[in-house]
Amino acid sequence: MTVSDFGALAVELHRHSPTHWVATYYPMVQTPAGRWADVTWVLHRSLIPATFDRSELTRWLEVRSSDPAHPCYTGHPAWASPLAIGYAAALATYEAEAVEETLSAHDVEQLQSATVVVPPEQLSEWVLDDLEGKPSPARG
């Protein structure tokens, strides 16, 4: 597993309350099965005001810039600024925490065995349960 397209981050959106959504930023990784969000590494989490536009129908986004005018935010004009600010914070976390030295084959193997990558279409309620602090039987 390798980090995919450095600079591209996955954002999960879900409703927090009637007035806010939560945006959770994850790194994108390349696996033998394709590109996925590494949901084991939360880079940043922020609240976004509810706007009741079509962007609220989106559950996952791929973002690439801290500029709210970037094309990755085109479908989400009401959330472009807060998503871009969150992207900058998530990228700063990624850069601060990313391993800068080359890993040995053994270290790579250990990292791969300890990482769980969940395809978005298979992401079930256990993630939401985890965010809310509830135990989940799906991780059993």
Description of the molecule:
Strands 1, 2, 3, 4, 5 and 6 form a six-stranded antiparallel beta sheet that branches. The longest helix is centred in the middle third of the chain and has 18 residues, at 80-97. Mean pLDDT is 76; it is low at 134-140. Strand 3 (20-31) and strand 4 form a beta hairpin. With 140 residues, the protein is of the alpha+beta class. The radius of gyration is 16 Å and the shape is elongated. It has three helices and six strands. It has helices spanning 80-97, 105-114, 125-131, and strands spanning 2-3, 9-17, 20-31, 34-37, 44-49, 60-63.
Instruction: Tell me the span between the first and last alpha carbons.
Output: 24 Å
From the spread of the alpha carbons, the general shape counts as elongated
Helix count, DSSP H or I runs of 4 or more residues: 3
Q: Quaternary state, please? A: single chain
* Count of distinct strands: 6
Let me know the average pLDDT: 76
Helix content: 25-40%
Low-confidence segments: 134-140
Structural class: alpha+beta
Question: Sheet bearing the most strands, described?
Answer: 6 strands, antiparallel
The Rg value, from CA coordinates, equals: 16 Å
Task: Spell the H/E element sequence.
Answer: EEEEEEHHH
Beta-strand content bin? 25-35%
